[in-house]
Amino acid sequence: MNTTPRLSATLRSRISLVVAAVAGLLAFCWPLLLTPGAGVSARLAPQVFAGVLVMVLAVVLTELSAAQLDAKTLAMLGVLAAVGTILRPLGAGTAGFELVFFVIIVAGRAYGAGFGFILGALTLFTSALITSGAGPWLPYQMLAAGFVGLFAGLLPRARGAAELVLLAGYGMVSAFAYGWLMDFSFWPFALGDGTQLSFDAALGPWQNLQRFFWYNLATSMGWNLGRAITNAVLIALLGTPLLRLLRRSGRRAELVQPAIAAPTAE
Description:
Layout: H1 4-29, H2 40-65, H3 71-91, H4 100-111, H5 113-130, H6 138-152, H7 161-190, H8 205-249
């Protein structure tokens, strides 16, 4: 028997996922570590976008090499991305009423963290092309939505009502997290100097995070709360049948698998 190739593929998958997560967080949080200049957000967007594409491609390739994505799962990825692309414009600009995250969360739960990350990033990319919503914010939207799907696939095991409650709670938390990340992607550059809610490079990370908290509370609480309620209601009403449908459609394309596969005879 030989489990080394499988072990190696699983390790590569885990490493690619960790690298994508860390690099993505740095793309959002770097102003806390370095001093941003005026207009740097727009100038940085192409590099962030290129980095997002590289990360998504790396996750796809490692999943393919680990046999996590088969033809059926790739087809399902395309279908779900198309569904999300159609759903996203339906709630755009309506006080946080966004349908697309429900699909990303449930699919990430059903098919795993790697699938969820790819689906989140791909859906936001394709929907931006359809709605002419591409701009400096797009790579950050792709990353944030990818995180929503990624962590949905890493939730602890549960079944029945417990799983539904877990997903609904995660839907609310991830809705706020998405809003926080998106606001933080432009907040250090948006307000300028001289206000009590502005980013101040002379302050430490903790003081700036406190300022951001009050800025986000004043400007985005309604949107984040609307997104959270939408996620929770849709998961409560439609989560169980959609999970059942996705799980029946094929085996899990889960990125994080047991470290040692079952022995096979050679």
